[in-house]
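> run fold Squalene synthase
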Amino acid sequence: MDQLHHVSAAFLELEKGYQEAIEEITKRMGAGMAKFICHEVETVDDYDEYCHYVAGLVGLGLSKLFLASGSEVLTPDWEHISNSMGLFLQKTNIIRDYLEDINEIPKSRMFWPRKIWGKYAGKLEDLKYEKNSSNAVQCLNEMVTNALTHIEDCLKYMAALRDPSIFRFCAIPQIMAIGTLALCYNNVQVFRGVVKLRRGLTAKVIDRTKTMADVYGAFYDFSCMLKTKVDKNEPNASKTLKQLEDVQQLCRDNGVLHKRKSYVNDKGQSNNLYIVMLVILLAIVFAYLRANGVKKVFEKMGSLSTILRHQMKYIHS
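> ok
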């Protein structure tokens, strides 16, 4: 709070249209979040309402700012799909951050709705114990399935954006979200530690996300990855598979999938890297042979093999 004057100064420098949008959304967020100080997330409707206050309203506020800037034109259903953009991101964070939130001191933060977790445990914190792993993963999968319901709205919102910088600002977090859900699904590690996208994959997303075709390609890849992890014996398997198939069909109908590089199985680039590294290693061996003779080379094979192991470990990391 001791830095609030900086925020106030920046706010007062904004044009009136921006100020009005920020003021309205901030008031609504504050009132909504205050409601959940003493009100637990019991039902799925409560869950959606909480996510609306903390993230959906951010989506609405950003849409109003885009409109005020003159860079975008809002669609008739802009409020609904803007809200879905926020809910998709927030639900992904709530799923991924289960362990951090449940271990919060002095009091756990509990955002998973009782209507879902109550099917699998007596208390939400019970899901983190190894003896409850099977039920925990089933609960996790139902949470992911719930989050997937917002994807169609998110794709519709992004497809309507016109400004390239606004598009990338909105699209990159959404791709990170579907990628994170693909990692979390059926993954007990969510209850043991941190699950997140590798830095290299994150860099790919940032570098490659330039058009809506890139977004369709990314959502298609990650939905395929998630689909391979669905166990048909899961209680919600049919619902999960139906949602993923709908997403894949939407991406096929609107994207240019055959022309893009895969985010999940980008084997061509990896194979090229292996070839380059192999040539370099062979050159090193040849140089040793010429400089030191075969006998000395074999005497040093211990150290050379160590180098090779480190190089291969680097390639696979």
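The chain has two domains: 14-259, 267-316.
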